[in-house]
Specification:
The complex is a heterodimer of chains A (416) and B (483).
Chain A (H helix, E strand, L loop, with lengths): L11 H10 L11 H6 L6 H12 L5 H9 L7 H4 L6 H13 L6 H13 L3 H17 L5 H9 L13 E2 L7 E5 L4 H5 L1 H13 L2 E4 L9 H5 L3 H8 L12 E4 L2 H8 L1 H4 L6 H10 E3 H8 L11 E6 L2 H4 L6 H8 L4 E4 L14 H4 L1 H18 L3 E4 L2 H13 L6 E3 H10 L1
Parallel strand pairs in A: 2-3, 2-4, 4-5, 6-7, 6-8, 8-9
Antiparallel strand pairs in A: 1-3
Helix pairs in contact in A: 1-6, 3-4, 11-23, 17-19, 21-22
Chain B lengths: L2 H10 L5 E2 L2 H4 L16 E3 L4 H14 L3 E4 L16 E4 L6 E5 L4 E4 L5 H8 L4 E2 L12 H6 L7 H4 L6 E8 L4 E5 L12 H5 L7 E9 L1 E2 L3 E9 L2 H13 L6 E6 H11 L9 E9 L1 H17 L4 E4 L3 H17 L6 E4 L2 E2 L5 H15 L2 E7 L4 E8 L6 H18 L18 H4 L2 H14 L26 H4 L7
Parallel strand pairs in B: 2-4, 3-4
Antiparallel strand pairs in B: 1-2, 5-6, 6-10, 7-11, 8-9, 8-10, 12-14, 12-15, 13-14, 13-18, 16-19, 17-19, 18-19
Classes of the chains: A alpha/beta (416), B alpha+beta (483).
Chain lengths: 416, 483
């Protein structure tokens, strides 16, 4: 599309290029969860691109367009659907960052956002927030909606903190050496995921290093346009990773795709090369393991029907579709069942279920329905957000299926 | 739009289904032809046919023009809004109301997405045949308005061959039924379904459409043949036709289109080819196998330097995904382009391709060619950079020459995208003044106020730069020249 963008922002070239590439053909509409749900052009990728273009060209006010941009899940389903190769993710992240600099939020929204920025990336603070959350819940009827939805998301109790070992040696013939990114929210909510991942890797002949003192990778902050905070926290991890590793492994889809975007995040920064070096080593757990080749696990005594729910940031953002499925297919006595429309976002989408609770609820309900239609006895995914969301909505529909990370299921398959 | 019209609209629509703010209207200002932009006065989003009927009647009573829109994928600007007019978004009328596998019909609302019909009837061994490249998102309402085709229309015909009946609201608010559920049709009097299909929204809105379904072919065999020149691929098409075979689809892409589609989809197209011919046979297994042997022979003799068959359904799907993504994929090569849609008699395909090559050189513009070779439907994509002054006009002038060539060769200015905004000035090059007048009279008989999709299809004084008679402004300035 032709455009008249004159912004001198650092990211203007990326934004202009994405807009230029868009030919307004509409192929993305079919892939977009919010377009399917809301049926309005403004809530489609094409419409959002058009709105961002309108703002950058000074045709409309940024705060008028913002509610529609905010409703984007950032699920990236439109990216593989786009024939002309619009880098929608780059556009969205750059645009959000640009707007956040000047955005006026209602007081309470601003406070809630600050709370997210200040707690989610820090496991210790997050634990603390959980405790105060209990108090908060008593006060819930008196709090604005921004807080109410946050409190609803908090689980009743956290598992005890379980520090990860610094090194897990490779078992059998050594086939690789990796560092494991321990992450933030996931490590507080479900520490067993990283532990399972490390054990599976170790059982596959991989030496796993889990450097102490790691921070959040910054992806969740980048997702909400808090760019400088994201950078600040991300660069803390750079010096911690050993040099001679084959990969930096993450067990969270959003972290993986966020770290792959470091080049955009660190554009124009002095440590850009460090960031891109780090970024180039990042691999999702399932991608690394599938590339390495799985040592056959023992499998299960009785057949398990497993549904694999694609995390958007694995499927759409990183193109990982066959890798996790191939791992599961190698487990004896595991039958993979297909979820209809598995590529549609479950509504978790980072902090989306905090920002847009109504749409997140609707998508979560639909996803639970689709999963149940496939008739699994276990649900597996590659991202903590999806796992939490799916578990919640299966519970709401009265179906208490185990929902776990692919690393947990694989570890179970090695143990049984 | 005046206040009383708005007030009346508000009695039909709740606030969240009547868009009036600038920010909500802006994304509706173009369809898939972004060379034209007009912000509508308002967008209404009905959810049932009563609302549509009430809206059309209101527009008729208050003489407010309206445009019906499905997913906004028209390549001819067919769903371009009218300034101060109402846009009626039909995408929420997306119910499949009835499937009758015995009669092989489906009854659908206008906002149903083309591909969703096939997905819904696949379990009965049936499918909906017309397959525009945008079938994953384009709606049946739009398919009807533009009599859409697709790669597989070579064997099965366009949308008009698959619509058995429809309930419509005419532009004057009258609700009526055309056709029936029977494949034989009513059989008496003029074909009113045929009149409505392809009328580009000038007669009203289809509310409920009865479609014909086809049995899913038992077997597909798909072959790709690579050629070192475009003419040879064109000749191969003539050879296939001459052999008496009737493939389901026969498509050609040239080097630029191959490059774009391959970058987009990774279909395994040969990147060293000047032209790629895709031929697909489909039907009963025994027959397809026998025909395929024959087809292979023909293609081997046609001078292809590489011949490849789709090994499985996955490969076949990728070949078609690449072909169907080709238009949009060209966005990778150029910030702007014009998709043309002309038809030449199949026997003159080679001639037309040579001529396009000459024009391309003369205008010094890149042209990517994608076409439904089997039925002579050309889709030259003219690449330009809209930020360069005069580039659009130059591209439009080239597009105009290609269309003139199509008419000269005995073809048509549109195969399947319709006239819309884009080609309305060319209509008189295809039709005599008498024919034009008959069409105008027909239109006025149904829509005396010309409120339905006003300004489309017929030439108008407000026509944009697509003016082909006389010298082009750039010619006058000496920027371009023609012999």
């Amino acid at each position: 599309m032709r455009h008249q963008i004159k912004s001198d922002d650092l990211r203007a070239p990326e934004m202009a290029e994405a807009i230029e590439k868009c030919v307004h053909c509409g192929f993305c509409l079919a892939a977009c969860p919010t377009y399917k749900l809301l049926g309005e052009e403004m809530d489609s990728p094409r419409g959002r691109i058009y709105l961002m273009k309108g703002v950058l060209e000074d045709r409309i006010e940024a705060d008028e367009a913002q509610p529609f941009i905010d409703r984007c899940l950032g699920c990236m389903a439109c990216v593989p659907a786009c024939p002309s190769g619009v880098a929608y993710g780059d556009l969205l992240v750059s645009y959000r960052t640009l707007q956040e600099q000047s955005r006026q939020r209602p007081l309470m929204d601003g406070v809630a956002r600050r709370l997210i920025i200040e707690t989610l990336p820090y496991p210790r603070r997050f634990r603390l927030a959980m405790k105060s959350g209990k108090i908060g819940r008593m006060l819930q009827p008196f709090l604005p909606e921004a807080f109410a939805s946050m409190l609803n998301m908090l689980p009743d109790k956290l598992p005890p903190p379980s520090p990860l070992p610094p090194i897990l040696p490779a078992q059998g013939e050594r086939r690789g050496k990796v560092a494991l990114l321990s992450g933030c929210v996931q490590q507080a909510l479900a520490p067993q995921i990283n532990l399972a991942a490390a054990r599976v890797l170790s059982a596959n002949g991989v030496e796993v290093h889990i450097p102490a003192g790691q921070s959040c990778c910054g992806s969740i902050l980048l997702h909400i346009g808090a760019e400088s905070e994201a950078r600040q926290i991300a660069r803390r991890n750079f010096p911690l990773m050993p040099d001679d590793i084959d990969a930096i492994i993450t067990t969270a889809a959003g972290c993986g795709s966020g770290m792959k975007d470091y080049e955009l995040l660190f554009k124009g920064q002095t440590d850009l090369h460090k960031a891109s070096d780090f970024s180039s080593k990042v691999k999702d757990f399932s991608a690394y393991l599938a590339g390495l080749g799985l040592r056959e696990p023992r499998g299960f005594a009785a057949e398990r029907a497993v549904a694999y729910q694609d995390a958007c940031h694995l499927l759409h953002a990183q193109g990982l579709q066959s890798e996790p499925r191939s791992l599961l297919n190698q487990v004896p006595n595991l039958r993979l069942v297909d979820i209809p429309d598995a590529g549609i976002c479950c509504g978790s989408a980072g902090t989306y279920n905090l920002d847009q609770p109504a749409i997140a609820e609707e998508l979560g309900g639909q996803k639970a329905g689709a999963i149940l239609a496939a008739g699994p006895d276990t649900v597996v995914s590659g991202n903590i957000g999806c796992i939490t969301q799916i578990r919640k909505h299966l519970d709401l529909q009265g179906k208490n299926l185990p929902v776990m990370h692919i690393a947990e299921l694989l570890w179970a398959a090695y143990q049984s | 739009m005046n206040r009383s019209f708005f007030e009346a609209l508000r009695s039909i629509y709740p606030d969240d289904r009547l868009l009036t703010r600038d920010v909500e209207l802006l994304p509706y200002e173009s369809d898939a032809l972004t060379a034209f932009q007009t912000k509508p006065g308002a967008v209404a989003l009905p959810i049932d046919e009563e609302e549509i009927i009430d809206t059309v009647r209101l527009c008729h009573r208050m003489k407010v023009p309206f445009v019906a829109r499905g997913s906004g994928t028209s390549l001819s600007g067919g769903s371009l809004p009218i300034a101060d007019g109402l846009m009626i978004g039909l995408n929420r009328l997306n119910r499949i109301k009835k499937i009758d596998p015995e009669q092989r019909i489906a009854v659908v609302e206008p906002g149903v997405i083309n591909l969703h019909i096939t997905e819904a009837v696949r379990q009965y061994g049936l499918y909906y045949a017309p397959d525009p490249s945008s079938q994953s998102i384009c709606t049946i309402g739009g398919n009807i308005a533009f009599n859409s085709g697709g790669a597989h229309c070579l064997k099965y015909g366009m949308t008009s061959n698959h619509v058995l009946g429809m309930k419509v609201v005419l532009a004057d608010g009258v609700v009526t039924q055309f056709g029936s559920e029977s494949i034989e049709g009513v059989g008496i009097g003029p074909d009113l379904v045929g009149l409505f299909v392809g009328s580009e929204g000038l007669f009203g809105i289809a509310l409920e459409i009865t479609l014909r379904l086809m049995p899913t072919p038992q077997l597909y065999r798909t072959v790709m043949a690579a050629y070192d020149n475009l003419g040879r691929a064109g000749d191969a098409v003539s050879m296939v036709v001459a052999s008496g075979l009737l493939p389901g689809a026969m498509e050609i892409m040239d080097r630029l289109a191959i490059k774009a589609a391959e970058a987009s989809v990774g279909a395994g197209y040969p990147l060293d080819a000047e032209a790629l011919l895709i031929v697909e046979l489909e039907g009963e297994a025994l027959q397809v196998e026998a025909e395929f042997a024959e087809l292979r022979g023909v293609i081997e003799e046609s001078g292809a330097f590489e011949i490849r068959e789709a090994k499985d359904e996955d490969e076949r799907a990728r070949i078609w995904q690449g072909r169907k993504s080709a238009f949009s994929a060209v966005g990778r090569l150029s910030p702007d382009y014009i998709v043309q849609d002309g038809v030449v008699p199949r026997s003159r395909l080679g001639e037309a391709l040579v001529k396009i090559g000459e024009l391309k050189a003369q205008y010094q513009l890149d042209v990517a060619n994608v076409f439904h070779a089997g039925d002579g439907n050309l889709h030259p994509l003219i690449l330009y950079n809209g930020r360069e002054p005069g580039a659009l006009e130059k591209a439009e002038a080239l597009a105009g020459e290609i269309l003139a060539m199509c008419v000269d060769l005995g073809g048509s200015i549109t195969g399947e995208h319709g006239v819309g905004m884009e080609k309305r000035e060319y209509l008189p090059t295809m039709f005599s003044p008498v024919e034009m007048e008959i069409m105008r009279d027909l239109r006025r008989a149904i829509d005396p106020e010309e409120i339905a999709n006003r300004g489309k299809m017929f030439p108008s004084g407000e026509a944009p730069a697509l003016q082909m008679r006389g010298m082009h402004p750039l010619e006058r300035q000496g920027v371009i020249s023609r012999e």
